[in-house]
From TrEMBL:
This is Cohesin domain-containing protein. PROSITE patterns: EF_HAND_1. One of its GO terms (biological process) is polysaccharide catabolic process. It comes from Flavilitoribacter nigricans (strain ATCC 23147 / DSM 23189 / NBRC 102662 / NCIMB 1420 / SS-2) (Lewinella nigricans). Residues 1-22 form the signal peptide. It comes from the Bacteria. Keywords: Signal.
Length: 1150
């Protein structure tokens, strides 16, 4: 089962197909043979034959990197084929000689291309010397070969022949043998009919020819024709009398993947509330012979199951006539009481009304079959029209689980109301606010911050709006703020991963509209899916892949969200790094009848692991499991590994090659030591009894969290090159921590090596924090096997080696402290901008917790302060991107108490103090306001009198007087900043420090390019207290401090920090002497605050924290306020009188 087949079946929702045993017209891809001079750029054409009804293809191409260096792809002549279909070595540096190609017809109508059409050309810089040459070959690493087509109205995989080409440097391209074939065979492993073989036709060149075949399961042959094919790739190399060589890779497709299908699946989860194991699983099988056997991981052999508790149940269904098998797992999750209820949303009775209360219960789990019964007789999760009083409800689900809830509806001291915010069309100034009032809207008066006195507003533009409503009968009041966002949509995307097998991964992509437009929204995806929803749209794509969604709201407003390219490597089966090995064991008769087989989990999942072997043994261990089992070089074993949270991994087949004749070949990996993480080291693989060896293959395995492989070299093996090994892609999860090795003696003479000689040298970079880590020879994914010149397979004995760290490790990465100064603050955003998009070594067990963590040096530093990028990769995933800003929010203002380095502010400041007054001005551009206003002030960098500034990143603080500003109302917007656009080329961060009366702000570009300009860089949104107990105008000082402006080269730019004043006009006619009659003391207070207001009648008193949350309320005119239950800090005390509102700042100490 491979990716393209399942992708196309999924897209077209097809079931079944007509099996094709052979094709008279064989699909072919051919690379031309060409010549070039040293230093020039050359392009090799890729042509096709019999490219009919094609739906998709994928493969890899490789070359000799000592001769050619790929520069790109051009001349693309295939629909939907673009640069995004190619992955170059820059995106996978562990494959410097590989080009990955993945294409499918997005219209799913299939594509026909005339014979000899060039579908694309691969271009290279010629880096080799005159006289050298490089083949250009098709390969199945790191991308499996597969071709999909529409045949007879159904989707089918297609066989193919893939002809290699070459580039000769400084001499004419040689005349090489031409290889053709009359028919393309298709292996069908589920059929009783023997599959056809391969019968190539060789011409041109100079006879006689020598033939060398290699294929699946260590297949090799020197005959021209071969038979008894199995699915896989067969490489034929033909060499003529002049030693001219050509090769063709024959892709033999597997049609067994849809023979068996699970159908009519029904899963019932067990009910834990009744303490019963009453779960069940039932299904039927399709597309087989009708005669099946079943093997479950708990030993059952029945098809349908009942009486099951919670857990993972895996069944292997086998067609007893055809021999095909298919595996499927089912997860049963017990239902219990705790899952029934999440929270209750209570709306109190609005002030001045009677029956306006409401309760809404949020139910957990599946709501279908769940009932909610109230003590009022009502049913359903929500009841409305409630008076004050106590209410209770019983929640019961279909399984009999119950939950009892009770709560109280009280009378609010304010008018409770809500509002609907939206747009009438896509034009500017089309926003509206409609108020939903408790009762008759005519019973209320309305006072908007705009001066309007109507219930609803329309024709609104971007900004904040406040309304105060008053019940004309009771005098109760209430107010709300509403925010009309910019018409632009605010969207976010995420995805969930589904793993079919190691080559087939799907991602369900979700895009949410957080703001903008008017719901419902129509989501039109680039893969053809479409849906309408109030909030969220989703689609499913195969990986690797990218999808784009166009969103249209109910008014016809349109936006195109950012492309989404899901990364499912962390959550798929391939996130397990594993290795298998075995040793043959002699019995009392000297026969190697058994093997000690070990399966090891380097990392992935969460230990302990449960190892369920195919021979029935199950055990739990922290890292590895070992069995003793019969070994006859035919019997194979698999093991299913499940971590403690249910994540599973199924091994490849393990075949212990014992009970065979011959002198064992010994291969031993040596030990090595490095001084510290980040250094490189090489270990030898030495051999004994390496006599007459004609072929050898095995897997090198290591812990990818500790080591990264750099290279494999050999001075002893003839014809050794990069084509003999594949370095495992640890970053993408393609067999992480493995390198597969395969070598044959092309001279067919057999090779002898001295005992204890280094056959290979394997080089690594140490990246982990373990004092020691092993390197072993493994059977996974390529089994260990050696053969002699007589094609005899001989025993192999192996031993692993250890790489040690000489001087131990140091943990010096603190997530969020990107400038490595011991403190997390807004300045740390600047380094994320400087390093944005860079990749390096992931941190072992990296997380966002504020603790010292080990990180390997990336050997990339910020230009000026020379901070290593490992500190900037805050989440430790090996990539610096916007997600790394999360650590700043989580760990803001946390300090490393063991920090003994230079003070952070001193470290990063490189300008004299005079630069703070002579540089580009930065200030808040204020204007006069009135009480109750919600102004929006521009924050300017540069003014009309100053020249334009060159900027990459900027951090600063705003110092403000909180007394006349509504607590919790301070906000920043970066929508109109000339420095950049959020979610495109700019990151932003701000934090309001209410205790210090400051807003800490940072913004940085992410594209590595400075920008020049002046003007507004952000907007400051505030709300002025609506009534202040004063009779004259007053000023609110506001200033910029601690500003740091840098370029992309991290050069500091002078900034002049300026102060501003917000002048507030009062509208009352209050005697100033009255203000002096309100005494609040002592300040600071401890447990009690005293009041003296002899000439003023206090109606009520409210205490707020500086985030805007009301903490306590008193009515009447108390002379003392108990504060014993409050933590120490600064608070705002609002005293409401008939003449107005007085505000006092209160400091509480204990």
């Amino acid at each position: 089962m491979k990716r393209l087949y399942f992708t196309l079946c999924f897209l077209l929702t097809l079931s079944g197909f007509t099996s094709l045993q052979a094709q008279s017209d064989c699909l072919a891809l051919k690379v031309e043979h060409t010549t070039a001079t040293a230093g020039e750029t050359v392009c090799a054409d890729v042509m096709v034959e019999n490219f009919t009804s094609m739906l998709g293809m994928q493969f890899s191409m490789r070359w000799d990197p000592q001769v050619l260096s790929v520069t790109g792809v051009n001349n693309m002549n295939l629909s939907d084929l673009s640069q995004t279909n190619f992955s170059f070595p820059a995106t996978a540096p562990q494959y410097p000689d590989r080009l990955r190609v993945v294409w499918f017809d997005q219209s799913t109508n299939s594509v026909d291309v005339p014979d000899n059409t060039v579908i694309f050309s691969v271009c290279f810089d010629v880096v080799g010397e005159v006289g050298t040459s490089s083949p250009i070959l098709f390969d199945d690493t790191p991308t499996d070969i597969e071709f999909a087509a529409r045949i007879g109205g159904e989707i089918d995989t297609k066989a193919a022949r893939l002809h290699s080409g070459s580039v000769s440097v400084g001499f004419p391209a040689p005349v090489v043998p031409q290889i053709d074939i009359e028919s393309c065979p298709v292996a069908d492993v589920c059929s009783e009919v023997p599959p056809p073989g391969l019968s190539p036709i060789v011409s041109m060149g100079t006879p006689p020819y020598n033939y060398a075949w290699t294929g699946p399961n260590l297949f090799s042959s020197s005959e021209l024709e071969i038979s008894e094919l199995v699915p896989g790739n067969y490489l034929l190399q033909v060499q003529d009398a002049n030693l001219a060589t050509s090769s063709v890779l024959f892709h033999v497709n597997d049609q067994s993947h849809t023979k068996l299908v699970f159908s009519d699946v029904l899963v019932n989860h067990p009910n834990d509330c009744q303490e019963n194991s009453d779960g069940s699983i039932s299904f039927t099988m399709r597309n087989g012979s009708g005669s099946y056997s079943y093997s479950w991981n708990d030993g059952s052999e029945s098809r349908d199951r009942s009486g099951l508790g919670g857990g993972i149940y895996t069944v292997t269904a086998t067609d007893m006539l055809l021999g095909c098998s298919v595996v499927r797992s089912f997860t049963l999750v017990p239902e219990n009481d705790d899952q029934l209820f999440q929270f209750a949303d209570i709306t109190d009775v609005s002030c001045g009304t009677t029956n306006t209360g409401a309760i809404r219960l949020v139910i957990g789990g599946e709501f279908e079959g769940t009932t909610v019964s109230w003590n009022t007789g009502a049913t359903g999760p929500e009841i409305t029209g409630l008076a004050t009083g106590n209410y209770s409800a019983t929640v019961t689900n279909s399984g009999g689980c119950t939950f009892e809830w009770s709560g109280k509806v009280e009378v609010s001291d304010e008018v409770e109301f809500t509002g609907e915010v939206g747009y009438t069309d896509c034009e500017q100034s089309s926003g509206f606010i409609n108020l939903n009032m408790p009762g008759d809207p005519s019973d209320f008066t309305y006072a908007w911050s705009t001066g309007e006195q109507t219930q609803n507003l329309s024709g609104l533009s971007f900004g904040a709006y406040r309304v105060t409503v008053t019940n004309t009968a009771s005098g109760c009041t209430g107010y709300r703020h509403f925010y009309i966002k910019d018409e632009a949509f605010l969207t976010g995307s995420n995805w969930e991963c589904t793993v079919v097998d190691e080559q087939t991964v799907f991602a369900k992509v979700y895009t949410v509209v957080w703001g903008g437009g008017t719901p419902p929204y129509t989501f039109n995806w680039s893969n053809g899916d479409s849906m309408t929803d109030e909030l969220i749209g989703f689609t499913t794509i195969s990986l690797p892949g990218t999808v784009i969604v166009t969103i249209t709201d109910s008014k016809g407003c349109v936006t195109v969200a950012e492309p989404v390219t899901p990364d499912c490597t962390g959550g798929s089966e391939s996130s397990f790094s594993t290795a298998s090995s075995y040793n043959c064991i002699e019995d009392e008769n000297g026969q190697q009848s058994q093997a000690e087989i070990t399966y090891r989990v380097w990392n992935g999942g969460t230990p302990p692991y449960t190892f369920a072997w195919s021979n029935g043994l199950t055990e739990t261990a922290d890292q590895q499991s070992t069995i003793i089992a019969p070994a006859d070089a035919i019997q194979s074993y698999t093991v299913t590994v499940t971590d403690q949270f249910g994540q599973t991994h199924i091994s490849k087949k393990i075949i212990p090659v014992c009970q065979i004749d011959g002198t064992p070949l010994h291969m031993d990996i040596g030990d090595a030591t490095v001084d510290a993480p980040g250094e490189s080291v090489c270990v030898p693989i030495t051999v004994e009894n390496f006599t007459g060896i004609a072929g050898l293959q095995f897997t090198i395995s290591w812990d990818p969290s500790q080591l990264v492989i750099d290279d494999i070299t050999s001075d002893l093996l003839p014809n050794f090159g990069t084509h003999n090994y594949n370095l495992g892609n640890y970053a993408s999860g393609n067999y992480p921590g493995t390198a597969t090795f395969s070598w044959i003696d092309v001279n067919t003479q057999g090779v002898d090596l001295p005992d204890n000689s280094p056959m290979l040298e394997v080089c690594f970079t140490s990246i982990g924090d373990a004092p020691q880590t092993e390197v072993i020879l493994s059977n996974h994914p390529t089994i260990i096997e050696a053969s002699t010149i007589t094609s005899q397979v001989i025993p192999v004995v192996t031993s692993g080696g250890t790489i040690s760290i000489q001087n131990g490790i140091s943990k010096n990465v603190w997530p969020g402290d990107t400038d490595n100064n011991g403190l997390v603050d807004h300045f740390d955003l600047l380094n994320i901008g400087l390093a944005f998009g860079e990749n390096g070594y992931p941190r072992p067990d990296g997380n966002l917790n504020w603790e010292a963590q080990f990180g390997v040096p990336w050997n990339q530093q910020t230009p000026n302060t020379q901070t290593d990028y490992r500190h900037i990769d805050t989440d430790g995933n090996g990539t610096i991107n916007a997600i790394d800003t999360l650590a700043l929010a989580l760990n803001y203002r946390l300090f490393n108490e063991n920090w003994d380095g230079e003070d952070g502010y001193t470290q990063r400041e490189t300008l004299p103090e005079s630069a703070r007054t002579t540089g580009t001005p930065i200030f808040v551009d204020t204007y006069a306001v009135q009480e109750g206003d919600m102004p929006v002030f521009n924050i300017l960098l540069g003014d009309e009198a100053s020249s334009e500034s060159t900027v990459y990143g900027l951090a600063f603080s705003i110092n403000y007087d909180p007394l006349a500003i509504v607590p919790g109302s301070l906000q920043l917007s970066f929508d109109n900043s000339w420095i950049g656009q959020e979610e495109q080329d700019m990151l932003t961060f701000y934090r309001v420090d209410t205790q210090a009366h400051r807003i800490h702000v940072a913004m940085t570009r992410t594209d590595g390019v400075d920008i020049t300009g002046k003007g507004a860089i952000a907007q400051l949104l505030v709300t002025i207290e609506d009534v202040i107990f004063r009779s004259d105008n007053y000023d609110i000082p506001i200033s910029i401090e601690n500003a740091r402006l840098i370029t992309a080269a991290e050069e500091a730019v002078p900034v002049a920090e300026r102060s501003s004043v917000i002048t507030v006009s009062t509208t009352g006619t209050i005697d100033p002497a009255l203000d002096q009659q309100i005494r609040v003391y002592p300040v600071p207070a401890r447990d009690v605050l005293f009041l003296k207001t002899p000439q003023i009648h206090i109606e009520s008193i409210e205490l707020y924290d500086l985030e805007g949350r009301r903490l306590q309320r008193w009515t009447g005119s108390p002379d003392r306020l108990p504060l014993t239950d409050l933590p120490q800090g600064t608070y705002a005390l609002r005293l409401i009188t008939a003449q107005g509102v007085a505000v006092r700042r209160v400091v509480l100490l204990h």
